[in-house]
Structure formats: structure tokens, C-alpha cells
Write a structure and sequence with these properties.
The complex is a heterodimer. Chain A is of the alpha+beta class. Helices cover 23% and strands 28% of the residues of chain A. Chain A has a single domain, classed as OB fold (Dihydrolipoamide Acetyltransferase, E2P). In chain B, strands 10-11-12-9-3-13 form a six-stranded mixed sheet, sandwiched between helices. In chain B, strands 14-17-16-15-18-19 form a six-stranded antiparallel beta barrel. The chains are: A alpha+beta, B alpha+beta.
Chain lengths: 158, 414
């Protein structure tokens, strides 16, 4: 219960103001073969295994990542729900899983080098690998074009 | 929506700062209020357009639209302040003058400082107390002279402070007391901090700044306008707070950046929070609240010697008793493992018993590790005491350490 309470603390509508981008920023990188969630995670599917990380856009807005909280291998995750957290200097942010399934690997390197999430969000900064239980869920995610547009619209709201 | 970009420690702090409630639950409830306030009219400082033009990411803070950061990351901004310097717009804070032959006795009825004993043109950190000895706000008070004191209070506490001071002033005046106030809404406040603060500012004034020490105050000409200059700050570095007529604020900010040849950087509230935490300084609304006394907060040193003997401020009975017997809880500095603890992280003993709560925490850009402050039971406050902090349900090793976390560099009189 304590966990749920602390989580709810981080979620706030006011928080969306942190996304304000008052200066023209360079376009964040978006990769073609990945799928994207509205909560700014990417997923790369290979057979029934999916690698999950956070997007370049997300890491850019969060700033320097100083800690990544990883789940245990074997834990189950479900689409749209939280499985870990990234801590930047300014804030704690939940990471949601874009797909449901079982965690089959976690990127232990992030414990020593959390900055990989900033420097290499789509490769060295991957967070977990999931054995996908429902491939149909992937259809609800965005492709690169949709996601780029989604980010632009979200930024322009502020 | 909850997720990566839907969370905000700082936005929540802003909510807490504008809350008048003491309990953490009250601060939590204010989240919704903060969001609504965010969408309503936010106040803008004289530098608002300047911030936006310089890439400031504007966020709601205590009813104001303030830059949380500019193009530099919070990490880089924090490090640059200590290596070179930072310029902050802190115009959201409220400057206030009390004037009259009894301005000092009046103020002393509300704060713990020995204002009368201050030399003209010097100041001190002080605390406004309530009748239970709790902190209404912390403030830097300067004795300009025997009949003028100048104060700067927190933006988030402005309304309640002015209501509190106003009500007591009315009663004081009714009894024939000679005091009146002026809220300096015609002025803006810039904080110039870091090793380049003094050499940079020196290029804009004839006043010899090498003769002006920590906590000194002067009314002088800076960059052609009549400023109130205090050698103080909220970063642990040497530096100044400059109260400048609002119509001259942008020019002064530009001049300071230019004279430093780009080394002094505009710095937002994000890095300001990291800097003050590294310096072990309290943030009102987090580390100090209505139910926390100055003694519990580790600010007994700010209670003047005469005031300790005589009392005569609100809640003096509670505070003097705590000075004698020791408080039940104490503010401590903490190093911890794992993810950075944030405010409201629970502190537990090795056997899992609740012994306190974190009130501020984060990753220290200078030390490259987690630092936090919080309150623990008296007796568990000594440096080296080990316990656990709970972050998202998991316990992590933590140890009490002396503050400041990063050595302060105030320019003190020899």
C-alpha cells in the first residue's frame, strides 16, 4: 500500500508542465522498426521476445538519468502498467510496459551506468526483455511516424 | 496520465510550498489545487520574456511562472554554479520593509532573531514562529538601521506571512506602536552566486565589494540603478541577492551575464534546489513546516542569545523548553544507497520500525551520490547512525552525515 501511495505522488497533472519546451529543440531520434507507447516507451519485437526501453524524446525531457529501478527476471508485466522507474536529478518517473508478458532479462549494466539511458536510449540503454504473451497488443502501439507526430503535438500543447 | 513524463517532484514541491497545511497529507491533497492554479493565471516576473528568449522551461511555482531550467541540464547548471557562477531570477520572493521607531521591537515579537543586536547593514537568517513554536516561514532579515528592517520571505508563504504580520502590526499600532510596512512589489530580485559572483558584480558598481562580507547589506548603485545588495544566497556559494527596480531588472541581468563573458549562466529552480540541498539549507514547505520548531530544524543558532534568555516571540515557551530539554525529533543529513530518496520517503530502523521521514532528497550533482535531509527521533541524529530509507516499498541502507554535504564558501569577515 505504501508503494501505491508513493506512486500516486509522482502522478500529477501539474507535472505535464515539465514538458514545456519553450525553445525549438532538435528533433529527437525515432527509429523506424520500433513500436511506441503514449507513455514514451519503445519496444522492439524479435519473435516472441520484446526489448523495452524509453525513447530519445523521453530521456531528453527527463535530463540526466541517475538511477534505473529494474524488475526481477521472472516478474510479470502487463501492458500500460508500471514495472520500474527512472530517476533523473529533478524527478522520479514510472516506466510502463508497452506489452504484457514475463520479464526474461534486465539490463544490469544500467545499475552501474544509468546514463546509458541518455546516451544510447535505443541500444545500450535498453531496460528489459519480455516474453510476449499477447502479440495482438502490439497493434495498439504507435509506429515511428505516429509517435513523432504524437511528441510534436504533446510539446506544442504547452 | 501516469508515466515517464507525467511526474514531477518539483511541481509537487511547488504545490507543497503553496500549501499552508502542515501535514504531508495536506500537501498531497494540494496537488489537484496546484494543477488548477497552473492552468489559471500565473504571475510573471519582469524577466519572464527574458527567460523564454533564453530557452527557459517555464513551470508553475507558488503561483508564478518560473524557469525550472534553461538549455543546460540541471546537472551541468549545478556544477557550473560551483565552478563559475549562476544568475537566478528570484523575483517571486517577497521583499518587505518595516519602518518606524519601533520596527525592531515589533519584528522581534514575531521572529527568533536578536534583530536589535545586529549592526546596521547586517542581517541573519530567521524564523517566523507561531504560538506553538512552529515555523510559519524562514526569512533573511536585515537591519538597515534602527528604524528600518528589510526582509525577504518565501513566495509560497507570501499571503500567509503578510496576513500574519499585518494582523499583528494592526494590534501593535492600536497600542500606539510606531511601525509601518512597504511590500517591494516595484522591485525584482536577482541572485548572483558562485566564485565569479563578486568579480562580475564588481565590474558594475563603484562600491568595494571586498569590504562587504557574508550577510552585509548596502543600498548602492549597480549598473546605474538604485539597488539593495545583500551578500547572501541559497547555494552555499559566495554571492549576492540584488533587489533592483523592476524596470531595470532585464538590463541588470543582461549586464551580469555579459560581464562574466558567458561563464555565469542563467540557472533555474531545478539546479537551485540541488544547490541548496547540497548546502544543507532548508526548503520551507519540505524541511520546515508549521509543526516544526527552529530547534528541531537545527536552527537553534539563529535564536539570538538575548532571545533565548528573554523569549518574547510567539511560541517562546515551547522553544525555550526544547532548548533546555532537547527536541523529540531532529533534522539530519543522510547519504543513502539505491534510488534517490525524495520527500516523504519513510525512514526505518534495522528492524523495520518507523523512526522518521525524508523531507528533501535527490542525487547530488557534485558528490555523484544520493543526499537527503529528514527528521528522525532524537538520539538517532548523530553522524554515523545507520538506518534504512524506504523508496517504492524497498529498504535501502542510509547513514546520518553532517551537513553541509558540499562545503560552503561564504565570504566571511576575517
Amino acid at each position: 500500500m505504501a508503494m501505491a501511495a508513493s506512486r500516486s505522488l509522482w502522478a500529477s497533472r501539474a507535472a505535464s508542465y515539465l514538458k514545456i519546451s519553450a525553445f525549438p529543440r532538435a528533433f529527437s531520434t525515432v527509429l523506424k522498426d520500433l513500436k511506441y507507447a503514449e507513455t514514451h516507451e519503445w519496444v522492439k519485437v524479435d519473435g516472441d521476445s520484446a526489448t523495452v526501453g524509453i525513447t530519445d524524446h523521453a530521456q531528453d525531457h527527463l535530463g540526466d538519468v541517475v538511477y534505473v529501478e529494474l524488475p526481477e527476471v521472472g516478474a510479470s508485466v502487463s501492458q500500460g502498467t508500471n514495472f520500474g522507474a527512472v530517476e533523473s536529478v529533478k524527478a522520479t518517473s514510472d516506466i510502463n510496459s508497452p506489452v504484457s508478458g514475463e520479464v526474461i532479462a534486465v539490463n544490469d549494466e544500467l545499475l552501474e551506468k544509468p546514463a546509458l539511458v541518455n546516451g544510447d536510449p535505443y541500444e545500450g540503454g535498453w531496460i528489459i526483455k519480455v516474453k510476449v504473451s499477447d502479440a495482438g497488443e502490439l497493434n495498439s502501439l504507435m509506429d515511428d511516424k505516429k509517435y513523432s507526430k504524437f511528441c510534436e503535438e504533446e510539446d506544442s500543447k504547452h | 496520465m501516469r508515466g515517464l513524463l507525467a511526474c514531477a517532484t518539483l511541481a509537487r514541491r511547488a504545490a507543497a510550498a503553496s500549501s499552508t497545511g502542515g501535514a504531508s497529507t495536506a500537501a498531497r491533497r494540494h496537488l489537484a489545487g496546484a494543477a488548477e492554479a497552473a492552468e489559471a493565471e500565473l504571475k510573471k516576473t519582469a524577466l519572464y520574456d527574458f527567460h523564454v528568449a533564453h530557452g527557459g522551461k517555464m513551470v508553475p511555482f507558488a503561483g508564478w511562472s518560473m524557469p525550472i531550467q534553461y538549455k543546460d541540464t540541471i546537472m551541468d547548471s549545478t556544477l557550473n554554479c560551483r565552478a563559475n557562477g549562476s544568475l537566478f531570477d528570484v523575483s517571486h520572493m517577497c521583499g518587505l520593509s518595516l519602518q518606524g521607531s519601533q520596527a525592531i521591537p515589533f519584528l522581534e515579537s514575531l521572529v527568533v532573531a536578536d534583530v536589535a543586536a545586529l549592526k546596521d547593514g547586517t542581517g541573519s537568517l530567521t524564523v517566523f514562529t507561531n504560538d506553538k513554536g512552529g515555523a510559519i516561514d524562514d526569512s533573511v532579515v536585515t537591519k538597515v538601521n534602527d528604524h528600518h528592517v528589510y526582509l525577504v520571505v518565501n513566495a509560497g508563504c507570501r499571503d500567509k506571512d503578510l496576513a500574519h504580520i499585518g494582523a499583528h502590526m494592526e494590534a501593535f499600532q492600536k497600542k500606539g506602536g510606531d511601525v509601518k510596512w512597504h511590500v517591494h512589489d516595484e522591485r525584482s530580485l536577482l541572485a548572483l552566486q558562485g566564485p565569479l559572483a563578486a568579480p562580475t558584480l564588481q565590474l558594475l558598481t563603484k562600491e568595494d565589494l571586498s569590504k562587504m562580507y557574508f550577510s552585509d547589506f548596502k543600498m548602492i548603485d549597480i549598473n546605474g540603478s538604485a539597488c539593495f545588495l545583500t551578500r547572501t544566497g541559497y547555494t552555499g556559494e559566495d554571492g549576492f541577492e540584488i533587489s533592483v527596480p523592476s524596470e531595470n531588472a532585464v538590463d541588470l541581468a543582461k549586464a551580469l551575464l555579459e560581464k562574466s563573458e558567458g561563464k555565469v549562466r542563467l540557472t533555474g529552480l531545478g539546479a537551485r534546489d540541488s544547490l541548496r540541498l547540497e548546502a544543507g539549507l532548508c526548503l520551507y514547505g519540505n524541511d520546515m513546516e508549521q509543526h516544526i520548531t527552529p530547534v528541531e530544524a537545527g536552527l537553534s543558532w539563529a535564536i539570538g542569545k538575548r532571545r533565548k534568555a528573554e523569549g518574547g516571540f510567539l511560541g517562546a515557551d515551547v522553544i525555550l523548553k526544547q532548548l533546555k530539554e532537547g527536541p523529540k525529533i531532529r533534522r539530519v543529513g543522510i547519504f543513502s544507497q539505491g534510488p534517490p530518496p525524495r520527500s516523504h520517503s519513510e525512514i526505518v530502523s534495522g528492524t523495520g520500525e518507523n523512526i522518521g521521514e525524508v523531507t528533501s532528497g535527490g542525487f547530488s550533482p557534485c558528490l555523484k551520490k544520493n543526499i537527503a535531509m529528514g527528521y528522525v527521533k532524537n538520539g538517532l541524529h548523530k553522524a554515523g547512525t545507520e538506518f534504512k530509507v524506504v523508496v517504492r516499498g524497498k529498504q535501502y541502507d542510509a547513514v546520518v552525515t553532517k551537513m553541509p554535504f558540499v562545503p560552503t564558501k561564504y565570504y566571511k569577515a576575517p
